[in-house]
Specification:
heterotrimer, A mainly alpha (284), B mainly alpha (289), C alpha/beta (257), A: mainly alpha, 11 helices, globular, C: 257 residues, Rossmann fold, 6-stranded mixed beta sheet, 4-stranded antiparallel beta sheet, 10 strands, 38% helix, 26% strand
């Protein structure tokens, strides 16, 4: 092997690593570009607010948007309080016991279970066993269990970033543990928890596999009336029109993908901006 | 009064704390219950090493070997692309990138994680698959190869972010020691930094693998879904996850086919549990240092 | 003997403390007399802070902590008391000023509100508590015009006196000071010391300090701790002029520590 001059090999290495970074970044740019380029022409107010017509080949995607929003809204409503409480338990109460280690192992495990397995579980327990049927509530419960480990982890991080001295100061005044958490720890961890929640909303808006058998309907041109209704959902709708419908106009598929992508990306963006804003305003 | 209220709230908090365990046990219990009742009718050995997946034939065949091969092939393919690229990108972002663009690069990598898998599947189907078909002159572009590429993109954010974390947390004294001996930046990274960050990088790779194995929608849309053992990566394959997603809708609840899909989910559960457990071990090790 | 018992605010009886089975305090017995300032001096790792934190059970949150022996507050065993009740009666000031991330006013009223001392919505009652506490902590004149600004923006010395005011607002019986001036400049230190001396008319004070001179300035009695043991306790003047133990003499004359 030829021994390269170290300076020269450093230059090569840096250039090479830079190329790798570009390779890691470029796909997402291309994907977003392709979708915007092909999809924006079909976007209109009508597309966003009308019912689909002609076997979904024309018209709008309104029920799918409403469906996704209602599932996601219900899911976050369920998972956020549970996740935050679990994070409080782990961060504020739990000692290093076997139980605590088991909980942590369970969280790692929950985070790794494939989304389609959650879908099966949701089908088995919520749709069949508890008899909710294919419905918003069954889909939301499935998604909320799936998102639980993410919420717990981000909420724990937020709680952990509150300096321990604040807790000590409050406890030393005779204020009880829960009151300390409620009035000192939680208000200061709230920005972090909320940012995590927004990111979670973005993530579950795009999930398809868990709602495949628990909430999503193939075609249902009306707005849901109760949590026990089936709904159309944006990601599932995209899957259907891009694989199952013959002679589907391409620009409608791209436009649907664009709406889904923008929904998810704008929420992620809000979360990122919120995080920067709160970090600057932090009082300690 | 106050005391009672506090006590009740603390009980609720404790209950939420152990709920994670309850869910894992519940999911596992559910899968095992359906899985075992399936194995009673259809042997576990025939299930794992059977080559044929003909759920609606008479008598039906439930051999998942071809599905396992499909999953493994796509995963290995994705890793071959994503692991080296991801680690190199992580090194560049954490050690070499100018300060001003560091955060931009990081956010761009993370942006990929935000794109829904069904969108990635769709783009792969309409833009990458035709390219693959023409370029390699094969009958269909929906192949294991195409799937590997798209999945590599999806695993990239996981691998880059976690490796970057590990590399960044290497104590600066290590680097300083090497610089003091006259090593160049690149020599230091190669010999010192990468070695010290290795547990974290391995964890990153494991988590990336976990993400790929569990991926459903994108693979279902771009790997072609043919349940046979492929001869090369330029043939369509079908993964375990795609099988569940594609066939669940057609099954009779409680039927043999229905339970067979739960048995596949059980296999997936074990695999991802193992992968994530290993990742967690390495992650713990890299944090303790 | 009987009268002496009556004067005792706190009585520490053969107290030993351990962190993960490592002994940090060994068989300490002493009494704290009502309305005195008892200063505790000693080098680092002498167990003086562990001792102080045991007196209002702040160590109980550490799962590695264990102890033997007893502590009595007005003849009541503190380890049998409700922890929150105990801390209302025995307040603690930490080495670094820890204002809570809220306004000056909210800081002072925080504990009375949370402990249910005041009824909801009684603004006048709250104002009175805040003013009295800030006056007693000699801070009122400096902050009366900016009660609604963030406590995090005050100077270190002001923050430390705010923390004192926060304790005074719940009207404790004993106040524990854990090296309260270690992060402060001499002028701020002098102000805190003045405040302490003024407070001893109404409160019993235990002061842990690394600063031997501070102990001689404010202490009525002084205890010297070394390696987890109580070496000597006595009237401050006497202990500084003619200590009984050689080790005490070595420490206060600056031979180690």
């Amino acid at each position: 092997m030829i021994k390269l001059n170290p300076k020269l090999s450093q230059k090569f290495a840096v250039a090479f690593l830079f190329c790798a970074t570009i390779v890691a970044i470029i796909p997402v740019v291309i994907i977003i570009f392709i979708i915007i380029k092909n999809g924006y022409s079909a976007i209109s107010l009508e597309f966003l607010t009308a019912m689909p017509t002609n076997g979904m080949r024309s018209g709008g995607i309104f029920p799918a948007i409403v469906g996704t929003l209602s599932i996601v809204f219900c899911a976050i409503l369920i998972t956020l309080p549970i996740g935050v409480c679990a994070a409080i338990y782990l961060n504020e109460y739990a000692k290093d016991t076997l139980l605590t280690r088991l909980i942590k192992l369970a969280i790692v495990n929950l985070a790794g279970i494939p989304s389609v397995v959650y879908g099966l579980f949701g089908l088995g327990i919520f749709v069949m066993f508890l008899g909710f049927g294919v419905s918003i509530i069954a889909g939301a419960l499935t998604l909320s269990i799936m998102e639980l480990p993410v919420i717990i982890t981000t909420a724990r991080g937020a709680l952990n970033s509150v300096p321990p001295a604040f807790r000590e100061a409050s406890l030393a005044l005779g204020v009880s543990r829960w009151q300390t958490i409620r009035h000192i720890v939680l208000p200061n961890a709230l920005p972090g928890i909320l940012t995590g929640a927004i990111l979670s909303i973005a993530r579950i808006s795009g999930e398809t596999a868990p709602i495949l058998f628990t909430a999503a309907a193939f075609y249902l041109p009306h707005i849901p009336r109760s949590p026990f209704d089936q709904v159309m959902a944006l990601p599932y709708h995209l899957y259907i029109i891009s694989t199952q419908i013959p002679n589907m106009p391409k620009n409608i598929i791209f436009a649907t993908a664009l709406v889904l992508l923008m929904m998810v990306l704008s929420m992620s963006l809000i979360a990122i901006i919120a995080r920067i804003y709160f970090r600057k305003r932090r009082k300690w | 009064m106050r005391k009672i209220k506090d006590d009740i709230i603390e009980k609720i908090i404790f209950f939420c704390g152990i709920l994670s365990i309850v869910f894992v046990v519940l999911i596992f219990g559910f899968l095992i219950k359906e899985g075992i009742s399936f194995f009673k009718e259809f042997g576990i050995v025939d299930f794992i090493i059977g080559k044929f997946w003909y759920p609606s034939a008479n008598p039906p065949e439930f051999g998942i070997l071809s599905l396992i091969v499909g999953s493994v092939l796509v995963t290995v393919g994705a890793c071959i692309i994503a692991v080296p690229v991801g680690i190199m990108a992580a090194v560049y972002i954490s050690e070499l990138a100018p300060k001003q663009i560091k955060d931009i690069l990081k956010s761009l990598v993370e942006l990929m994680a935000a794109v829904p898998s069904v969108v990635i599947g769709f783009v792969g189907m309409v833009s990458l698959a035709p390219l693959v078909r023409v370029f390699f002159n094969i009958p269909t572009g929906l192949t294991a190869f195409t799937g590997s590429i798209m999945l590599a993109f999806m695993a990239m954010p996981t691998i880059v972010t976690i490796s970057e974390d590990a590399i960044r947390s290497v104590p600066w004294q290590y680097k300083e020691g090497a610089f003091a001996l006259g090593a160049t930046k690149w020599q230091t990274i190669r010999r010192i930094v990468l070695k010290a960050a290795m547990p974290g990088i391995i964890a990153a790779i494991m988590l990336g693998i976990g993400r790929v194995i569990g991926e459903t929608m994108a693979v279902m849309m771009i790997t072609g879904n043919a349940a046979h053992i492929p001869h090369s990566i330029f043939e369509p394959v079908r993964t375990m996850t795609a099988t569940i997603a594609a066939e669940m809708g057609e099954t009779v609840t409680g039927g043999l086919h229905y339970r067979a899909l739960f048995a596949i989910a059980l296999v997936l559960f074990f695999i991802t549990f193992l992968v994530n457990f290993i990742a967690d071990l390495f992650l713990g090790r890299s944090k303790n240092k | 003997m009987k009268t002496n018992l009556y004067q005792n605010k706190m009585l520490i009886d053969d107290l030993s403390c351990f962190f993960s089975n490592k002994c940090v305090l060994e068989n300490v017995s002493l009494s704290i007399i009502k309305n005195e300032i008892l200063t505790i001096i000693g080098p680092s790792n002498s167990g003086k802070t562990s001792f102080l934190r045991t007196l209002n059970r702040m160590n109980d949150f550490n799962s590695d902590f264990s102890r033997k022996g007893n502590v009595f507050l007005d003849e009541e065993n503190i380890f049998h008391m409700n922890m929150e009740k105990l801390r209302m009666r025995v307040g603690m000031l930490f080495a670094m000023p820890i204002p809570l991330p809220m306004t000056v006013y909210e800081n002072v009223i925080y504990a009375p509100k949370r402990l249910g001392v005041i009824k909801h919505g009684k603004k006048s009652e709250m104002d009175a508590i805040v003013e009295q506490a800030l006056r007693d902590a000699s801070l009122w004149d400096e902050v009366k015009d900016r009660l609604d600004s963030s406590a995090m923006k005050m100077s270190g010395g002001q923050q430390q006196r705010l923390c004192i005011a926060r304790i005074l607002a719940i009207n404790p019986e004993v106040i524990l000071f854990d090296e309260p001036c270690s992060g402060l400049d001499p002028i701020s230190t002098a102000k805190v010391e003045e405040t302490m001396i003024a407070l001893k008319k109404r409160y019993t004070i235990v002061l842990v300090t690394n600063n031997v001179k501070q102990a001689s300035r404010v202490g009525d009695r002084t205890a010297f701790f070394l390696m987890g043991r109580l070496i000597e306790i006595g009237g401050t003047a006497k202990l500084f002029v003619s200590p009984k133990e050689q080790k005490t003499n070595d420490y206060i004359t600056g031979r180690f520590g």
